[in-house]
Amino acid sequence: MTATLLQTLIGIFAYLLVMIVVGFWYARRSNSNMDEYFLGNRGLGPWVAAMSTEASDMSGWLLMGLPGVAYFTGCGEAFWTAIGLAIGTLVNWHFVAKRLRVYSQVADNAITLPEFFSNRFHDKKHILITIASVTILVFFSIYVGAQFVTFGKFFTYVFHAENYYVAMVIFGAIIVLIYTLIGGFMAVCMTDLIQGILIFFSLIIVLICGFIFSGGFSGVSARLSDFPRFLDIFGIATPALQDGKQIITNGIPQFSAGIDYSLLNIVSCMAWGLGYFGMPQVLIRFMAITKSSKIKQAKYIAVIWCFISLLVAVSIGLIGRAYMPDKLVTASAAENIFLYMAVDFFPPLLAGVVLSGILAASMSSSDSYMIAVSSSLANDIFKTFFKNASGAMVMWVARITIILVTIFGVIVALSGNNSIFRIVSYAWAGLGAAFGPLVLFSLFWKRTTLPAAIAGMLSGGLIVIIWKSFISKLGGSFAVYELLPAFIISALIIFIVSLCTKTPDSLIEKEFERVVREKLN
To answer: What is the tally of structural domains in the chain?
Structure first.
Protein backbone atom coordinates (compact mmCIF):
# COMPACT_ATOMS: atom_id res chain seq x y z
CA MET A 1 0.00 0.00 0.00
CA THR A 2 1.46 3.37 -1.02
CA ALA A 3 1.77 6.30 1.37
CA THR A 4 -0.66 8.29 -0.81
CA LEU A 5 -3.34 5.60 -0.62
CA LEU A 6 -2.78 5.20 3.12
CA GLN A 7 -3.39 8.91 3.76
CA THR A 8 -6.52 8.86 1.63
CA LEU A 9 -7.84 5.87 3.53
CA ILE A 10 -7.14 7.55 6.87
CA GLY A 11 -9.43 10.43 5.87
CA ILE A 12 -12.15 8.03 4.70
CA PHE A 13 -12.04 5.69 7.68
CA ALA A 14 -11.98 8.57 10.15
CA TYR A 15 -15.32 9.62 8.71
CA LEU A 16 -16.71 6.08 8.86
CA LEU A 17 -15.62 5.75 12.49
CA VAL A 18 -17.49 8.94 13.40
CA MET A 19 -20.68 7.53 11.87
CA ILE A 20 -20.44 4.32 13.89
CA VAL A 21 -19.72 6.23 17.11
CA VAL A 22 -22.84 8.37 16.55
CA GLY A 23 -24.88 5.19 16.14
CA PHE A 24 -23.67 3.80 19.45
CA TRP A 25 -24.17 7.19 21.14
CA TYR A 26 -27.89 7.17 20.32
CA ALA A 27 -28.40 3.44 20.83
CA ARG A 28 -29.61 3.63 24.43
CA ARG A 29 -32.05 6.47 23.79
CA SER A 30 -33.40 5.01 20.54
CA ASN A 31 -34.06 1.62 22.05
CA SER A 32 -36.17 3.00 24.90
CA ASN A 33 -39.46 2.82 22.95
CA MET A 34 -40.94 2.65 19.46
CA ASP A 35 -41.60 6.39 19.16
CA GLU A 36 -37.92 7.02 19.79
CA TYR A 37 -36.69 4.30 17.43
CA PHE A 38 -38.97 5.17 14.50
CA LEU A 39 -39.53 8.95 14.88
CA GLY A 40 -37.07 10.27 17.48
CA ASN A 41 -40.06 11.18 19.69
CA ARG A 42 -40.70 14.18 17.39
CA GLY A 43 -37.57 15.87 18.69
CA LEU A 44 -35.82 17.24 15.57
CA GLY A 45 -34.68 20.85 15.70
CA PRO A 46 -34.75 22.96 12.51
CA TRP A 47 -31.09 22.40 11.57
CA VAL A 48 -31.21 18.64 12.07
CA ALA A 49 -34.60 18.37 10.33
CA ALA A 50 -33.50 20.44 7.35
CA MET A 51 -30.07 18.93 6.80
CA SER A 52 -31.14 15.34 7.43
CA THR A 53 -34.09 15.78 5.05
CA GLU A 54 -31.93 17.04 2.20
CA ALA A 55 -29.03 14.67 2.81
CA SER A 56 -31.33 11.64 2.92
CA ASP A 57 -33.12 12.88 -0.17
CA MET A 58 -30.20 13.52 -2.49
CA SER A 59 -28.17 10.31 -1.99
CA GLY A 60 -25.08 9.29 -3.98
CA TRP A 61 -27.05 10.45 -7.01
CA LEU A 62 -26.11 14.06 -6.17
CA LEU A 63 -22.33 13.56 -6.30
CA MET A 64 -22.21 10.79 -8.89
CA GLY A 65 -25.44 10.35 -10.85
CA LEU A 66 -26.23 13.99 -11.64
CA PRO A 67 -22.65 15.10 -12.45
CA GLY A 68 -22.34 11.95 -14.57
CA VAL A 69 -25.32 12.92 -16.73
CA ALA A 70 -23.95 16.46 -17.15
CA TYR A 71 -20.50 15.09 -18.06
CA PHE A 72 -21.81 12.67 -20.67
CA THR A 73 -24.63 14.56 -22.42
CA GLY A 74 -24.23 18.19 -21.32
CA CYS A 75 -26.63 20.68 -19.77
CA GLY A 76 -30.04 19.65 -21.07
CA GLU A 77 -31.23 16.71 -18.99
CA ALA A 78 -29.15 17.51 -15.90
CA PHE A 79 -30.20 21.18 -15.79
CA TRP A 80 -33.95 20.61 -16.09
CA THR A 81 -33.87 17.71 -13.65
CA ALA A 82 -32.11 19.93 -11.12
CA ILE A 83 -34.63 22.74 -11.68
CA GLY A 84 -37.54 20.35 -11.14
CA LEU A 85 -36.02 19.04 -7.92
CA ALA A 86 -35.28 22.53 -6.61
CA ILE A 87 -38.85 23.71 -7.24
CA GLY A 88 -40.26 20.49 -5.79
CA THR A 89 -38.20 20.97 -2.62
CA LEU A 90 -39.42 24.54 -2.17
CA VAL A 91 -43.09 23.71 -2.78
CA ASN A 92 -42.97 20.65 -0.52
CA TRP A 93 -41.47 22.54 2.42
CA HIS A 94 -43.76 25.53 1.92
CA PHE A 95 -47.11 23.79 1.52
CA VAL A 96 -46.83 20.25 2.87
CA ALA A 97 -44.43 20.30 5.84
CA LYS A 98 -46.43 22.20 8.46
CA ARG A 99 -49.80 20.72 7.57
CA LEU A 100 -48.42 17.17 7.67
CA ARG A 101 -46.69 17.85 11.00
CA VAL A 102 -50.01 18.95 12.51
CA TYR A 103 -52.15 16.31 10.80
CA SER A 104 -49.89 13.40 11.80
CA GLN A 105 -50.55 14.21 15.46
CA VAL A 106 -54.26 14.80 14.96
CA ALA A 107 -54.44 11.44 13.14
CA ASP A 108 -53.91 9.52 16.38
CA ASN A 109 -50.20 10.47 16.62
CA ALA A 110 -49.13 8.58 13.48
CA ILE A 111 -45.38 7.90 13.44
CA THR A 112 -45.03 6.55 9.88
CA LEU A 113 -46.47 7.59 6.53
CA PRO A 114 -48.56 4.40 6.06
CA GLU A 115 -49.93 4.81 9.58
CA PHE A 116 -50.84 8.42 8.77
CA PHE A 117 -52.81 7.31 5.70
CA SER A 118 -54.60 4.64 7.68
CA ASN A 119 -55.47 6.93 10.58
CA ARG A 120 -56.40 9.83 8.31
CA PHE A 121 -59.09 7.76 6.56
CA HIS A 122 -60.07 5.62 9.59
CA ASP A 123 -59.22 2.46 7.67
CA LYS A 124 -60.44 -0.24 10.06
CA LYS A 125 -59.60 -3.07 7.65
CA HIS A 126 -55.95 -1.97 7.36
CA ILE A 127 -56.00 -2.01 3.55
CA LEU A 128 -54.20 1.31 3.09
CA ILE A 129 -51.49 0.62 5.62
CA THR A 130 -50.74 -2.75 4.00
CA ILE A 131 -50.57 -1.41 0.44
CA ALA A 132 -48.43 1.55 1.50
CA SER A 133 -46.03 -0.66 3.46
CA VAL A 134 -45.58 -3.11 0.59
CA THR A 135 -44.98 -0.19 -1.81
CA ILE A 136 -42.28 1.21 0.48
CA LEU A 137 -40.75 -2.24 0.85
CA VAL A 138 -40.49 -2.77 -2.92
CA PHE A 139 -39.28 0.63 -4.11
CA PHE A 140 -37.07 1.52 -1.15
CA SER A 141 -35.30 -1.82 -1.36
CA ILE A 142 -34.42 -0.94 -4.97
CA TYR A 143 -33.32 2.50 -3.77
CA VAL A 144 -30.99 0.95 -1.18
CA GLY A 145 -29.42 -1.07 -3.99
CA ALA A 146 -28.66 2.13 -5.90
CA GLN A 147 -26.73 3.47 -2.90
CA PHE A 148 -24.76 0.26 -2.63
CA VAL A 149 -23.77 0.67 -6.29
CA THR A 150 -22.21 3.95 -5.17
CA PHE A 151 -20.24 2.12 -2.47
CA GLY A 152 -18.94 -0.36 -5.01
CA LYS A 153 -17.85 2.31 -7.48
CA PHE A 154 -16.33 4.39 -4.72
CA PHE A 155 -14.22 1.74 -3.04
CA THR A 156 -13.09 0.01 -6.22
CA TYR A 157 -11.86 3.39 -7.47
CA VAL A 158 -10.06 4.22 -4.23
CA PHE A 159 -8.40 0.80 -4.00
CA HIS A 160 -7.86 0.49 -7.78
CA ALA A 161 -9.34 -2.98 -7.52
CA GLU A 162 -12.12 -3.67 -10.05
CA ASN A 163 -12.04 -7.35 -9.10
CA TYR A 164 -13.16 -6.50 -5.57
CA TYR A 165 -16.38 -4.68 -6.51
CA VAL A 166 -18.55 -7.29 -4.77
CA ALA A 167 -16.51 -7.11 -1.57
CA MET A 168 -16.63 -3.31 -1.60
CA VAL A 169 -20.43 -3.25 -2.00
CA ILE A 170 -20.77 -5.60 0.97
CA PHE A 171 -18.30 -3.61 3.08
CA GLY A 172 -20.19 -0.33 2.54
CA ALA A 173 -23.51 -2.04 3.27
CA ILE A 174 -22.20 -3.43 6.58
CA ILE A 175 -21.04 0.01 7.76
CA VAL A 176 -24.50 1.52 7.19
CA LEU A 177 -26.17 -1.54 8.68
CA ILE A 178 -24.23 -1.22 11.95
CA TYR A 179 -25.16 2.33 12.93
CA THR A 180 -28.71 2.14 11.54
CA LEU A 181 -29.40 -1.13 13.32
CA ILE A 182 -28.29 0.05 16.75
CA GLY A 183 -29.12 3.76 16.67
CA GLY A 184 -32.53 4.01 15.03
CA PHE A 185 -34.08 7.21 13.67
CA MET A 186 -32.12 9.71 15.80
CA ALA A 187 -28.79 8.14 14.87
CA VAL A 188 -29.84 8.33 11.22
CA CYS A 189 -30.84 12.00 11.52
CA MET A 190 -27.72 13.08 13.43
CA THR A 191 -25.41 11.27 11.02
CA ASP A 192 -27.37 12.85 8.18
CA LEU A 193 -26.70 16.30 9.68
CA ILE A 194 -22.96 15.62 9.63
CA GLN A 195 -23.21 14.09 6.17
CA GLY A 196 -25.20 17.04 4.81
CA ILE A 197 -22.46 19.43 5.94
CA LEU A 198 -19.76 17.18 4.45
CA ILE A 199 -21.63 16.86 1.14
CA PHE A 200 -21.94 20.64 0.86
CA PHE A 201 -18.26 21.19 1.71
CA SER A 202 -17.14 18.55 -0.80
CA LEU A 203 -19.23 19.98 -3.62
CA ILE A 204 -18.08 23.54 -3.09
CA ILE A 205 -14.38 22.79 -2.78
CA VAL A 206 -14.34 20.56 -5.88
CA LEU A 207 -16.23 23.22 -7.86
CA ILE A 208 -13.79 25.97 -6.89
CA CYS A 209 -10.74 23.88 -7.74
CA GLY A 210 -12.36 22.70 -10.95
CA PHE A 211 -12.75 26.27 -12.16
CA ILE A 212 -9.18 27.12 -11.23
CA PHE A 213 -7.63 24.05 -12.89
CA SER A 214 -9.81 24.45 -16.01
CA GLY A 215 -9.00 28.13 -16.61
CA GLY A 216 -12.11 29.75 -15.14
CA PHE A 217 -15.33 30.53 -17.00
CA SER A 218 -13.54 31.41 -20.21
CA GLY A 219 -11.44 28.25 -20.20
CA VAL A 220 -14.38 25.97 -19.49
CA SER A 221 -16.70 27.58 -22.05
CA ALA A 222 -13.98 27.58 -24.71
CA ARG A 223 -13.38 23.87 -24.32
CA LEU A 224 -17.02 22.87 -24.12
CA SER A 225 -18.17 25.05 -27.01
CA ASP A 226 -16.50 22.60 -29.39
CA PHE A 227 -18.98 19.89 -28.36
CA PRO A 228 -22.31 20.35 -30.22
CA ARG A 229 -25.27 21.26 -27.96
CA PHE A 230 -23.23 20.57 -24.80
CA LEU A 231 -23.99 23.91 -23.12
CA ASP A 232 -27.46 24.24 -24.64
CA ILE A 233 -30.21 23.80 -22.04
CA PHE A 234 -32.66 23.25 -24.90
CA GLY A 235 -30.58 20.51 -26.47
CA ILE A 236 -28.76 17.27 -25.70
CA ALA A 237 -25.21 16.45 -26.69
CA THR A 238 -25.03 12.96 -28.20
CA PRO A 239 -21.69 11.18 -27.81
CA ALA A 240 -20.59 9.25 -30.90
CA LEU A 241 -20.37 5.64 -29.74
CA GLN A 242 -18.60 2.52 -30.89
CA ASP A 243 -19.21 -0.74 -29.04
CA GLY A 244 -21.02 1.25 -26.34
CA LYS A 245 -18.11 3.61 -25.69
CA GLN A 246 -17.58 7.17 -26.80
CA ILE A 247 -15.12 7.54 -29.68
CA ILE A 248 -11.96 9.46 -28.76
CA THR A 249 -9.80 10.88 -31.56
CA ASN A 250 -6.43 12.39 -30.63
CA GLY A 251 -7.65 12.98 -27.10
CA ILE A 252 -10.85 14.70 -28.24
CA PRO A 253 -14.25 13.10 -27.52
CA GLN A 254 -16.46 12.81 -30.58
CA PHE A 255 -20.08 13.94 -30.66
CA SER A 256 -22.79 13.82 -33.30
CA ALA A 257 -24.82 16.93 -34.11
CA GLY A 258 -26.96 16.63 -30.99
CA ILE A 259 -30.73 16.80 -30.69
CA ASP A 260 -33.34 19.31 -29.60
CA TYR A 261 -34.73 19.06 -26.10
CA SER A 262 -38.45 19.50 -26.61
CA LEU A 263 -40.98 20.99 -24.22
CA LEU A 264 -42.12 17.44 -23.45
CA ASN A 265 -38.55 16.48 -22.54
CA ILE A 266 -38.25 19.52 -20.27
CA VAL A 267 -41.55 18.79 -18.54
CA SER A 268 -40.49 15.17 -18.19
CA CYS A 269 -37.27 16.13 -16.43
CA MET A 270 -38.94 18.71 -14.21
CA ALA A 271 -41.46 16.05 -13.21
CA TRP A 272 -38.76 14.75 -10.87
CA GLY A 273 -39.94 17.50 -8.51
CA LEU A 274 -43.34 15.81 -8.18
CA GLY A 275 -41.66 12.93 -6.41
CA TYR A 276 -41.08 14.98 -3.27
CA PHE A 277 -44.73 14.89 -2.30
CA GLY A 278 -44.49 11.11 -1.90
CA MET A 279 -41.03 10.54 -0.48
CA PRO A 280 -41.38 8.83 2.93
CA GLN A 281 -37.83 9.70 4.04
CA VAL A 282 -38.65 13.40 3.49
CA LEU A 283 -42.19 13.38 4.84
CA ILE A 284 -41.25 11.50 7.99
CA ARG A 285 -38.88 14.32 8.93
CA PHE A 286 -41.68 16.84 8.58
CA MET A 287 -43.59 14.71 11.07
CA ALA A 288 -40.58 14.52 13.42
CA ILE A 289 -39.87 18.26 13.79
CA THR A 290 -40.18 19.27 17.43
CA LYS A 291 -42.74 22.07 16.80
CA SER A 292 -44.61 23.15 13.69
CA SER A 293 -43.41 26.70 14.39
CA LYS A 294 -39.85 25.54 13.64
CA ILE A 295 -40.69 24.54 10.08
CA LYS A 296 -40.22 28.01 8.61
CA GLN A 297 -36.59 28.18 9.75
CA ALA A 298 -35.97 24.60 8.61
CA LYS A 299 -37.47 25.43 5.21
CA TYR A 300 -34.98 28.24 4.55
CA ILE A 301 -32.02 26.07 5.55
CA ALA A 302 -33.18 23.13 3.42
CA VAL A 303 -34.07 25.11 0.30
CA ILE A 304 -30.81 27.09 0.26
CA TRP A 305 -28.78 23.89 0.73
CA CYS A 306 -30.73 22.16 -2.03
CA PHE A 307 -30.57 24.95 -4.62
CA ILE A 308 -26.83 25.48 -4.20
CA SER A 309 -25.98 21.77 -4.10
CA LEU A 310 -27.91 20.96 -7.27
CA LEU A 311 -26.39 23.87 -9.18
CA VAL A 312 -22.89 22.91 -8.07
CA ALA A 313 -23.39 19.21 -8.90
CA VAL A 314 -24.41 19.99 -12.49
CA SER A 315 -21.52 22.46 -12.81
CA ILE A 316 -19.03 19.84 -11.62
CA GLY A 317 -20.13 17.50 -14.40
CA LEU A 318 -19.65 20.22 -17.03
CA ILE A 319 -16.32 21.40 -15.64
CA GLY A 320 -15.20 17.78 -15.39
CA ARG A 321 -15.74 17.34 -19.13
CA ALA A 322 -13.62 20.43 -19.78
CA TYR A 323 -10.91 19.30 -17.36
CA MET A 324 -10.61 15.67 -18.50
CA PRO A 325 -12.61 15.38 -21.75
CA ASP A 326 -11.49 11.90 -22.79
CA LYS A 327 -11.28 10.17 -19.43
CA LEU A 328 -14.71 8.58 -19.08
CA VAL A 329 -16.27 7.02 -22.17
CA THR A 330 -19.52 5.43 -20.96
CA ALA A 331 -22.53 6.85 -19.12
CA SER A 332 -21.83 4.57 -16.17
CA ALA A 333 -18.15 5.51 -16.00
CA ALA A 334 -19.05 9.21 -16.26
CA GLU A 335 -20.60 8.96 -12.80
CA ASN A 336 -17.05 8.72 -11.42
CA ILE A 337 -16.10 12.25 -12.49
CA PHE A 338 -16.32 13.67 -8.96
CA LEU A 339 -13.94 10.94 -7.76
CA TYR A 340 -11.34 11.69 -10.41
CA MET A 341 -11.45 15.43 -9.81
CA ALA A 342 -11.15 15.12 -6.03
CA VAL A 343 -8.09 12.87 -6.28
CA ASP A 344 -6.45 15.13 -8.88
CA PHE A 345 -7.02 18.36 -6.97
CA PHE A 346 -6.16 17.61 -3.34
CA PRO A 347 -3.41 16.12 -1.20
CA PRO A 348 -4.25 12.54 -0.15
CA LEU A 349 -5.55 13.21 3.38
CA LEU A 350 -7.83 16.04 2.25
CA ALA A 351 -8.87 13.99 -0.79
CA GLY A 352 -10.00 11.26 1.60
CA VAL A 353 -12.20 13.74 3.47
CA VAL A 354 -13.64 15.18 0.25
CA LEU A 355 -14.23 11.74 -1.21
CA SER A 356 -16.12 10.85 1.95
CA GLY A 357 -18.76 13.29 0.70
CA ILE A 358 -19.80 10.57 -1.74
CA LEU A 359 -20.08 8.06 1.06
CA ALA A 360 -21.98 10.66 3.07
CA ALA A 361 -24.50 11.16 0.27
CA SER A 362 -25.09 7.43 -0.14
CA MET A 363 -25.10 6.56 3.54
CA SER A 364 -27.46 9.39 4.46
CA SER A 365 -29.98 8.00 2.00
CA SER A 366 -29.56 4.26 2.48
CA ASP A 367 -29.89 4.52 6.27
CA SER A 368 -33.12 6.53 5.87
CA TYR A 369 -34.54 4.01 3.43
CA MET A 370 -33.70 1.16 5.82
CA ILE A 371 -35.49 2.88 8.69
CA ALA A 372 -38.49 3.64 6.47
CA VAL A 373 -38.81 0.03 5.32
CA SER A 374 -38.28 -1.42 8.80
CA SER A 375 -40.83 0.93 10.37
CA SER A 376 -43.37 0.08 7.67
CA LEU A 377 -42.97 -3.66 8.08
CA ALA A 378 -42.63 -3.71 11.88
CA ASN A 379 -44.90 -0.87 13.01
CA ASP A 380 -47.40 -0.79 10.17
CA ILE A 381 -47.82 -4.48 9.29
CA PHE A 382 -46.53 -6.62 12.15
CA LYS A 383 -47.92 -4.43 14.93
CA THR A 384 -51.22 -3.98 13.07
CA PHE A 385 -51.88 -7.69 12.69
CA PHE A 386 -50.27 -8.80 15.96
CA LYS A 387 -51.82 -6.30 18.33
CA ASN A 388 -50.51 -8.00 21.47
CA ALA A 389 -46.89 -7.80 20.33
CA SER A 390 -44.69 -5.91 22.77
CA GLY A 391 -42.72 -2.83 21.81
CA ALA A 392 -39.49 -4.81 22.21
CA MET A 393 -40.74 -7.47 19.80
CA VAL A 394 -41.76 -4.84 17.22
CA MET A 395 -38.28 -3.31 17.37
CA TRP A 396 -36.70 -6.75 16.89
CA VAL A 397 -38.84 -7.24 13.79
CA ALA A 398 -37.61 -3.84 12.60
CA ARG A 399 -33.97 -4.86 13.09
CA ILE A 400 -34.45 -8.13 11.24
CA THR A 401 -36.11 -6.19 8.42
CA ILE A 402 -33.13 -3.84 8.21
CA ILE A 403 -30.82 -6.85 7.80
CA LEU A 404 -33.03 -8.38 5.08
CA VAL A 405 -33.30 -5.07 3.20
CA THR A 406 -29.52 -4.73 3.35
CA ILE A 407 -29.11 -8.17 1.79
CA PHE A 408 -31.66 -7.38 -0.93
CA GLY A 409 -29.95 -4.03 -1.63
CA VAL A 410 -26.64 -5.82 -2.11
CA ILE A 411 -28.32 -8.18 -4.59
CA VAL A 412 -29.73 -5.21 -6.54
CA ALA A 413 -26.30 -3.54 -6.54
CA LEU A 414 -24.73 -6.68 -7.99
CA SER A 415 -27.45 -7.22 -10.59
CA GLY A 416 -25.44 -5.64 -13.40
CA ASN A 417 -27.22 -2.28 -13.71
CA ASN A 418 -24.45 0.12 -12.69
CA SER A 419 -26.16 3.40 -13.56
CA ILE A 420 -27.05 5.10 -10.28
CA PHE A 421 -29.11 7.73 -12.11
CA ARG A 422 -31.37 5.15 -13.79
CA ILE A 423 -31.93 2.96 -10.73
CA VAL A 424 -32.82 5.99 -8.61
CA SER A 425 -35.16 7.41 -11.26
CA TYR A 426 -37.26 4.24 -11.28
CA ALA A 427 -37.62 3.97 -7.49
CA TRP A 428 -38.24 7.74 -7.21
CA ALA A 429 -41.07 7.47 -9.74
CA GLY A 430 -42.68 4.54 -7.96
CA LEU A 431 -42.80 6.22 -4.57
CA GLY A 432 -43.69 9.64 -5.95
CA ALA A 433 -46.65 8.38 -7.96
CA ALA A 434 -47.97 5.98 -5.33
CA PHE A 435 -47.87 8.43 -2.43
CA GLY A 436 -47.53 11.97 -3.82
CA PRO A 437 -51.07 12.59 -5.10
CA LEU A 438 -52.56 10.91 -2.03
CA VAL A 439 -50.50 13.06 0.35
CA LEU A 440 -51.74 16.23 -1.36
CA PHE A 441 -55.37 15.13 -1.46
CA SER A 442 -55.20 13.92 2.16
CA LEU A 443 -53.89 17.25 3.38
CA PHE A 444 -55.87 19.65 1.20
CA TRP A 445 -59.21 18.11 0.20
CA LYS A 446 -61.70 17.14 2.88
CA ARG A 447 -63.84 15.20 0.38
CA THR A 448 -61.13 12.57 -0.30
CA THR A 449 -62.46 9.10 0.53
CA LEU A 450 -60.90 5.81 1.60
CA PRO A 451 -61.77 3.93 -1.64
CA ALA A 452 -60.24 6.80 -3.62
CA ALA A 453 -57.08 6.65 -1.49
CA ILE A 454 -56.73 2.92 -2.14
CA ALA A 455 -57.39 3.31 -5.88
CA GLY A 456 -55.00 6.24 -6.21
CA MET A 457 -52.15 4.54 -4.39
CA LEU A 458 -52.47 1.30 -6.34
CA SER A 459 -52.80 3.02 -9.71
CA GLY A 460 -49.82 5.29 -9.14
CA GLY A 461 -47.40 2.47 -8.33
CA LEU A 462 -48.71 0.10 -10.99
CA ILE A 463 -48.68 2.68 -13.77
CA VAL A 464 -45.02 3.44 -13.08
CA ILE A 465 -44.18 -0.24 -13.55
CA ILE A 466 -46.37 -0.64 -16.65
CA TRP A 467 -45.24 2.61 -18.24
CA LYS A 468 -41.55 1.89 -17.65
CA SER A 469 -41.75 -1.73 -18.80
CA PHE A 470 -44.06 -1.43 -21.80
CA ILE A 471 -45.55 1.93 -22.80
CA SER A 472 -42.31 3.95 -22.81
CA LYS A 473 -40.87 1.52 -25.34
CA LEU A 474 -43.33 2.87 -27.93
CA GLY A 475 -41.12 5.96 -28.09
CA GLY A 476 -42.12 9.48 -29.05
CA SER A 477 -44.42 11.16 -26.53
CA PHE A 478 -44.67 7.88 -24.65
CA ALA A 479 -40.97 8.03 -23.72
CA VAL A 480 -41.77 10.64 -21.05
CA TYR A 481 -40.48 10.00 -17.52
CA GLU A 482 -42.93 7.52 -16.01
CA LEU A 483 -43.52 9.61 -12.88
CA LEU A 484 -45.39 12.29 -14.84
CA PRO A 485 -48.21 10.18 -16.37
CA ALA A 486 -48.47 8.00 -13.26
CA PHE A 487 -48.79 11.03 -10.96
CA ILE A 488 -51.46 12.64 -13.17
CA ILE A 489 -53.49 9.44 -13.55
CA SER A 490 -53.31 8.70 -9.83
CA ALA A 491 -54.52 12.23 -9.01
CA LEU A 492 -57.42 11.94 -11.47
CA ILE A 493 -58.45 8.58 -10.07
CA ILE A 494 -58.44 9.92 -6.50
CA PHE A 495 -60.59 12.87 -7.58
CA ILE A 496 -63.09 10.86 -9.63
CA VAL A 497 -63.47 7.98 -7.16
CA SER A 498 -63.92 10.44 -4.28
CA LEU A 499 -66.84 12.07 -6.10
CA CYS A 500 -68.36 8.69 -6.88
CA THR A 501 -68.17 7.32 -3.34
CA LYS A 502 -69.79 8.17 -0.05
CA THR A 503 -68.76 11.40 1.69
CA PRO A 504 -66.32 10.81 4.61
CA ASP A 505 -68.02 10.59 7.99
CA SER A 506 -68.32 13.64 10.24
CA LEU A 507 -65.44 12.62 12.53
CA ILE A 508 -62.97 12.54 9.63
CA GLU A 509 -64.21 15.94 8.47
CA LYS A 510 -63.88 17.38 11.97
CA GLU A 511 -60.28 16.17 12.18
CA PHE A 512 -59.55 17.81 8.83
CA GLU A 513 -61.09 21.10 9.97
CA ARG A 514 -59.08 20.96 13.21
CA VAL A 515 -55.87 20.63 11.20
CA VAL A 516 -56.80 23.64 9.07
CA ARG A 517 -57.42 25.73 12.22
CA GLU A 518 -54.20 24.63 13.95
CA LYS A 519 -52.14 25.07 10.79
CA LEU A 520 -53.35 28.65 10.37
CA ASN A 521 -52.51 29.57 13.99
So the answer is: 1
